[in-house]
Design brief:
Elements (H helix, E strand, L loop, with lengths): L1 H13 L3 H80 L6 H13 L9 H7 L3 H4 L3 H39 L1 H5 L5 H8 L10 H5 L2 H38 L3
Helix pairs in contact: 1-2, 2-3, 2-4, 2-10, 6-10
Length: 258
C-alpha cells in the first residue's frame, strides 16, 4: 500500500501534474491522520471498557460486603436492644425505685447481661476501607455513589467510638466491683460457664455480697446511668449505619448490573 502511494506521487510529478500531486499528498496526510485518530479512539474505547469492568468488580465486592455487614449490624442491634431493654434499664429502674429485696442470683444475672454480655464490635469493612483509601475509589464513575460512601465513613467511625465505650464501661464496672466488694464475689456467682470455670480455679474465702450495697450505691448508679446512655447512643448509631448501608445498596441496585 505504501509502495502504491509512493509510485502514484512519482508518476504525478513525472507528468508535471504538480497541483494534483499536492492535492493527492494532502489527501494522503488526511487519511493517515484519520487512521491515527481511529486507532486512538479504539485504544481509548478499550481502556474505558477495561475500567468499566474493573469498576463493576469493585462495586460488586463492595455490595457483597455491605449486604453481609447489614446482617451483622441487625444482629448486633437486636442483641444490644435486648440487653438495654431487658437488663440495663431494668437494673436502673431497681436503683431508682430502691428495690432492695432483689436476690443475689437475680442481681448477678442483670449485672452480667448489662456489663459483661457485650461482644467486641467487628463489622466487615475491609473492602470498603480498601476502596475508599485506594486508587480504586477513582475508578467509580458515579459521583453520587462516592458521596454516599463518604457519608458512610463518619457514621462507621462513630459506631466504633460508641461501641468501644461500652467495653470501657465494662472495665469500669469490674474496677468498681473489685474495689467495693471484691470482684471475686461476683465472679463466683457468674451465670457464664467460662467465668465460672475461671473463678472456681482461684483460691478464695467464702464469697458473699449484699445486693442492697450495690443497688443503693451512688457510684454504681452513676456507672449504670452512663452505660444506659451509651447503650442508647450505640443503638442510634447502628440504626444510622444500617440505613446508610441500605441507601448505598439501593443505589448500586439501581445503577449497576452484575
Amino acid at each position: 500500500m505504501i509502495k502504491f502511494f509512493k509510485n502514484t506521487r512519482i508518476t504525478l510529478l513525472a507528468e508535471g501534474k504538480t497541483s494534483k500531486y499536492f492535492k493527492y499528498a494532502i489527501g494522503e496526510i488526511v487519511l493517515v491522520v484519520i487512521g491515527i485518530l481511529i486507532a486512538l479512539q479504539i485504544n481509548n474505547w478499550n481502556e474505558q471498557r477495561q475500567e468499566n469492568i474493573k469498576e463493576k468488580q469493585i462495586v460488586k465486592s463492595l455490595y457483597d460486603e455491605f449486604a453481609e455487614n447489614s446482617d451483622y449490624i441487625e444482629e448486633r442491634l437486636q442483641h444490644l436492644s435486648y440487653l438495654s431493654e431487658k437488663s440495663s434499664k431494668r437494673l436502673l429502674a431497681l436503683c431508682i425505685e430502691n428495690h432492695t429485696d432483689i436476690s443475689e442470683d437475680s442481681l448477678v444475672t442483670l449485672l452480667y447481661n448489662t456489663f459483661l454480655a457485650i461482644p467486641s464490635y467487628a463489622p466487615k469493612v475491609s473492602t470498603f476501607k480498601r476502596i475508599i483509601n485506594n486508587e480504586e475509589y477513582n475508578l467509580i464513575q458515579h459521583d453520587s455513589l462516592k458521596a454516599l460512601m463518604n457519608q458512610y465513613q463518619p457514621i462507621l467511625d462513630f459506631t466504633y467510638f460508641t461501641n468501644n465505650f461500652l467495653q470501657v464501661d465494662e472495665q469500669g464496672f469490674w474496677a468498681y466491683a473489685r474495689d467495693k466488694f471484691g470482684g471475686i464475689a461476683l465472679g463466683l456467682k457468674s451465670v457464664t460457664p467460662i467465668h465460672k470455670r475461671l473463678f472456681d480455679s482461684i483460691p478464695h474465702p467464702k464469697a458473699f455480697f449484699n445486693p442492697n450495697d450495690i443497688i443503693s450505691d451512688i457510684a454504681f448508679q452513676n456507672i449504670l446511668t452512663n452505660h444506659v446512655l451509651f447503650f442508647g447512643y450505640t443503638i442510634n448509631r447502628l440504626n444510622e449505619l444500617l440505613e446508610q448501608n441500605k441507601t448505598i445498596r439501593d443505589y448500586i441496585d439501581k445503577h449497576y448490573e452484575f
